[in-house]
Amino acid sequence: MTKGATVWLTGLPSSGKTTLAQALASRLTREGHRVEVLDGDEIRTFLSAGLGFTREDRDTNVQRIGLVAEVLARNGILVLVPVIAPYADSREAVRKRHEASGTPYLEVHVATPLQVCAVRDVKGLYAQARAGRLSGLTGIDDPYEPPQSPDAKVETQLQSVGESVDNLHTLMAERGLL
Question: What is the spatial distance between Cα 11 and Cα 70, in angstroms, rounded to a whole number?
Answer without folding.
Answer: 20
